[in-house]
Amino acid sequence: MIVNEQLPGVEECEGSLKNVLDALYVINGKWKLAVILCLVQSSKRFNEIQHEVTGISSKVLAKELKDLELNDFITRKVYPTTPVSIFYEATEYSGTLKSVIAELSAWGEQHREKVKQSMRKQS
Amino acid sequence: MIVNEQLPGVEECEGSLKNVLDALYVINGKWKLAVILCLVQSSKRFNEIQHEVTGISSKVLAKELKDLELNDFITRKVYPTTPVSIFYEATEYSGTLKSVIAELSAWGEQHREKVKQSMRKQS
DNA sequence: GTAACCGCTTTCCTTTGGGTAAGTAAGGAC
DNA sequence: GTCCTTACTTACCCAAAGGAAAGCGGTTAC
């Protein structure tokens, strides 16, 4: 039995697993982060988002927007113009994802580098 | 058009999106992190893992172990006992996930608290 | 022999995520 | 009246993920 002292212990792991899975559940899917990042830049209308997040269908975008609103990452605002215009904007709460995204981004980048290197070695 | 100055800008977002998606691709799935966390505590045999990660089927566990080995998170070690015993152990590289897991865990925890609170308000 | 255990693999089935395309209600342009 | 736009919804389809259960080759126990 080999125990790695540098890594977290049993209790810490089991406690955090639930948290991590909860976090991933929210962040997960092909489009959620793309939509959040799109709206963090500026608030936008449905068709604008669909144009900017290339490849997403209206069905999926509608679903993602509902999910994100339920999780309080974005707000749906209806302006009483004629006809009404509907804007989606990122909430302050979506800012709490900043450090999570930063960590994931840093890790993802170094991981891609590592994969590239190991592919060079093999060829 | 409302721009949130406290959040990252356009370039930063678009650059990091790819990295984040790469990271999520590796981490993703119902079982990967559970298996990693299980093996980080100590190296284990197939049946031990299957017992500890409750609910995983042998088919899925076998697949996850292969994936994790390919991505260099774990090593498959065969010991020449009779019969041979096969141990899986976490590599040093799986330690690089530590800060990612820490962030995800912290965020997931506070998010769950927040969801609980907003459910109390509604009821 | 027979049964059981280990480390899987195989088969079959269901669920989930997502894609395509069409439709629709409300309003505006011509 | 007819068509266009906006913000979706609906219906149908497909592929990948995952679950259940059985099988399998090798080995040990009795």
Notable traits:
homodimer; 123 residues; mainly alpha; Arc Repressor Mutant, subunit A; three-stranded antiparallel β-sheet; 5 helices; 11% strand; disordered N terminus; DNA-binding
Structure notes:
The structure is a homodimer of 123-residue chains. With 123 residues, the first copy, chain A, is mainly α. Chain A has a domain at 15-91: Winged helix-like DNA-binding domain superfamily/Winged helix DNA-binding domain (Arc Repressor Mutant, subunit A, Orthogonal Bundle), CATH 1.10.10. The first copy, chain A, contains five helices and three strands. Chain A has helices spanning 10-27, 32-41, 46-52, 58-70, 98-122, and strands spanning 44-45, 74-79, 85-90. Chain A has a three-stranded antiparallel beta sheet. In chain A, strand 2 and strand 3 form a beta hairpin. Chain A is globular and about 60 Å long. Chains A and B meet through helix 1, helix 2 and helix 5 of A and helix 1, helix 2 and helix 5 of B. Chain B binds a DNA duplex (30 and 30 nucleotides) through helix 4.
